[in-house]
Every structure is written in C-alpha cells, then in structure tokens.
Amino acid sequence: MTDFPAFPPGFVFGAATASYQIEGAAREDGRGPSIWDTYSHTPGLVAGGDTGDVACDHYHRYPQDVALLRDLGVDSYRFSIAWPRIVPDGSGPVNPKGLDFYSRLVDELLAAGIEPAATLYHWDLPQALEDRGGWRVRATAERFAEYTAAVAAHLSDRVPRWITLNEPWCSAFLGYSIGRHAPGAREGRGALAAAHHLLVGHGLAVRELRAAGVREVGITLNLDRNLPATGSAADLAAVVRADTQHNLVWTEPLLAGRYPDTEEDTWGELITGQDFRRDGDLELISQPLDFLGVNYYRPIVVADAPLREADPALRTATDNRYAETRLPGVRHTAMDWPVAPDTFTDLLVSLKRQYGRALPPVHITENGSAENDAVSADGAVHDDDRVAYLRDHLAALRAAMDAGVDVRGYYVWSLLDNFEWAFGYDRRFGIVRVDYDTQRRTPKDSYHWYRKMIAAQPGRG
Ligand code: FCB
Record-annotated residues binding substrate (predicted)? Predict the structure, then answer.
C-alpha cells in the first residue's frame, strides 16, 4: 500500500495501556488498595458503577495479550506498574509477588521481540498515602522515589524506556480540583500543591532511575492545543490562562527550570505566598530528560468567563476564568471530543518553537479515539472512524516531523478496550475489542490497519 505515511528508520511503533484500566486482580497476590479502588467503589462516581476489580483480567491473561502485540508487529509496549502491587501500604515492605508479575510480563515481551516501556505512575496512588495527605504533601513524592528505586532494582536491566508520571495534569487537577478523578477533591491550593509535589516526585524518580543506569528517562504530559473561541482580546487572554493551567505549569519547570510568568494572572491569591515550593526544587525538576512523552487526543476551544467563586478560600484551582466551548464543523468521537488532526501538528510545532533546543526528542505516548463500535454479523469490528482517526493523526505527526520536530515514536491508545476512568467500560478506545462477559479479545479493523501500516514502513516486512 502506498497511502501509509512513511516514518524514518528506527521510528518506534507501539501500543499503550495502564495498570488499573486492564489488570483486574485487584485483591490478589498482596496488592493494596489504591485511590481508584476507593473512588470506583463509591456509589455514583463512575458510570454504571463500574470498577477495575476485574477489568480485562490482564493480570492472568497477559501471555495472550503479549501474543496480540507480537502479531501486531509493534516495536514497543507501554504499560504501567501498579504502585499498590509493589508497596501495598504506600511505605514499608516491598511485595515480591508484585515485582514478580511485572518481571514475568517483561520477560514475555522480550521473548516476543518487543521493547518494554514502563510508566511508574498512571494514577493508582496507594490509598494509605492518600490517607496521609496524598499529593498535597511532599512526603508522597519521597515515597514515590522509594517505590521507583525498588522497581528499578528489579527491572532496570530489562526495561530500556521509563516514564515517571502519566499526565500529571489529570492527577493534580482532575483529581484535586475538578473531582472527576480519584481522589475526587475540589480544592484550590491543595491542587496546586499536588501539581508541585508531582513534579518533585518526578525529579526524585529521575535521580533513582539514573542511579540504576537505565537507558532512557522521560515524563508523559497531556499537552493541550487551546484555541480561542473568537479573536477578541478577552478570549485570547483566556487562552493564556488555559495554556498556563494545562501546559506551562509542567513545561516551564521541566524544560526551562522556572515557574510560568503567567501564574499570578491565572491563579491570583491561590498561588501567591504559597509555601510548598522549596529552594532547589527547580533544579531537581529540570534535570535533563532523554525524551518528552506527549499524549494528544483533541483541541480545546476556550472562551473568557467570569470567576465562578469569588472567595479564594472556596475557589478551585481550575476556576481560571475560562469556559470550554464546542468546535463547530468537525466530527466528534464517542467522548464528544472534536477530531482536528491539524491541531496535533500545530501543538508539536509550537512546542518546538517555544523551547527550541531545550525540547528533548518526543515520543507520542498516547493517541487514539473512543468510538461506538460493535461486533458485526461477520464477527469483525468495522471501526472505520477509528482507522480514519489514526491515519489522519499519523499523517499530522509526520507533518510536524517534516517541520523539524524530532519525534521518535508513536504509541496507539489503546491495545485493548478498558476501564475508561469515570466513564467506566462504556467508552471503548481499544484496537482490540474486549467482551467483558467472556474476556474474549477480537482485533478490530483498526488493529489490522495498524499492523499493515507498520509492516509497510520502508525497510520492514
Ligand atoms: C488519557 C489517559 C489514558 C486514557 C486516555 C483516553 O488521559 O492517560 O489512561 O484514559 O486518556
């Protein structure tokens, strides 16, 4: 086929998942509870009352899932390690059975010729640490470093690529300000403290991974392309506040070693006089990285809006005087997210323009779409919309590379349909369908398309 975008030799194609979304076995082999167990078991918080207790039962079926990856022909598999399997109480003894599961998974991947890429934190904080303040307190970052050291001691010889945190925006702001993710809090300074302590935890984990001698260390951010609803000065100023909350709060400390100069305008009294930052933190946070992981799904359209809560003591950290509006004239996915691949190119090109040589090579660590797909009479899943989404976003990625952005890899989200957080099992992002009653896996048309695309790359197949 000639209509597949061609990527340079050595470009990494992969697929991604996360522990709580696929593993199940929530109470097995000494795993402790995480904030997502608590959140999903609280009535009314997750659609359909769904939990990750069983999920895709990947904990028991991982050999079958690795075989799906092998047949897909991917170079790399991005998975996450469940902290509460390794340190069930958040601090104290390490659970050998937890380490053993990931050790077996890694060996299975290596035997299939697939490079493991491990994420240390994809949101499943041990509940015991939340009970002691969670990411609001600095001690959690220190516990994260200890957990990282324990994992690295076991896996650093076989896992070349490491990601400290997945999408800290979601941990800090969906978790502690909007309350739509675990632990479900709606706070102002608590959420800003969480954002800072996540970055400190990242910095401490980078040190541990370097000490263990791993090949590549990075962090994954969900950077957003914020578009103004109109060309008015007020909407353009709202975009700056949205950029600060979504992007600059991470990229400025990580890549430039400074806090955003727009933070006072964005957070006002919530950020002034805060006491959670310490001397030396910026040096820790801005240690050089081997790559930046970027997750990208959709643009956000931003309009100016009044403060929802005038009293700073009651205000949340995401009340930044803007509102999200709809992007007209484009298809929306089952998440109701607009499909606009050109914004993916724009995001990457503007990131390069902003940070220049300070921007490390990029890996797209997630990209994909949720669609209302179903099994047809012929037994297949004809997910044409997902195929189009992937095709157009890979072409948009290629365009960013042609414009000078150094991108080294792309991981489709997700290998499997899985537990989509507050949406439960209702939203399907997999290129493989999972029947949750039987745990049967059915590769969708998008799986076959991705396999052909990889095989058609110059010098392969
Ligand atoms: C990202 C998450 C991932 C998945 C996708 C759809 O924000 O990292 O776990 O939920 O969105």
Answer: 21, 122, 166, 297, 413, 420-421
Q: How far apart are CA 401 and CA 375, in angstroms?
A: 36
The residue to mutate among 413, 418, 428, having the most atoms of ligand 1 within 8 angstroms of its beta carbon, is: 413
To the question of pTM greater than 0.90 for the whole model, the response is: yes
At 296, the amino acid letter reads: Y
| Best CA proximity match to 441, nearest among 461, 421, 418, 416 | 416
Task: Please report which helix (H) or strand (E) contains residue 219, including its range.
Answer: strand 216-221
Q: Is 250 annotated as a binding residue?
A: no
3 state SS for 289-311:
CCEEEEECCCEEEEEECCCCCCC
Determine the atom of ligand 1 nearest the C-alpha atom of 370.
6
Q: What is the pLDDT along the chain (461 residues), one digit of tens a residue?
A: 457 999 999 999 999 999 999 999 999 999 999 999 999 999 999 999 999 999 999 999 999 999 999 999 999 999 999 999 999 999 999 999 999 999 999 999 999 999 999 999 999 999 999 999 999 999 999 999 999 999 999 999 999 999 999 999 999 999 999 999 999 999 999 999 999 999 999 999 999 999 999 999 999 999 999 999 999 999 999 999 999 999 999 999 999 999 999 999 999 999 998 899 999 999 999 999 999 999 999 999 999 999 999 999 999 999 999 999 999 999 999 999 999 999 999 999 999 999 999 999 999 999 999 999 999 999 999 999 999 999 999 999 999 999 999 999 999 999 999 999 999 999 999 999 999 999 999 999 999 999 999 999 998 86
Task: Judge whether 122 is annotated as a binding position.
Answer: yes
Catalytic residues: 167, 366
Question: In 359-452, at which residue ranges do the beta strands (DSSP E only) sit?
Answer: 362-366, 407-413, 432-435, 440-443
Tell me 330's DSSP state. S
Helix (H, G, I), strand (E, B) or coil at 395: helix
Domain map (residue ranges) of the chain: 12-455
Among all chains, which residue has been given the structure tokens 């070693």?
257
Closest-lying ligand 1 atom to the alpha carbon of residue 427: 6
Q: What is the CATH number of domain 12-455?
A: 3.20.20.80
- Could you identify the atom of ligand 1 that is nearest to the CA of residue 421? 10
- Whether ligand 1 lies within 6 angstroms of the CB of 449 is answered as no
CA 375 centroid distance within chain = 28
What number of CA atoms fall less than 13 Å from residue 302's CA on the CB side?
28
Task: For residue 420, say whether it is annotated as part of any ligand binding site.
Answer: yes
Which residues make beta-bridge pairs with 220?
Answer: 166, 293
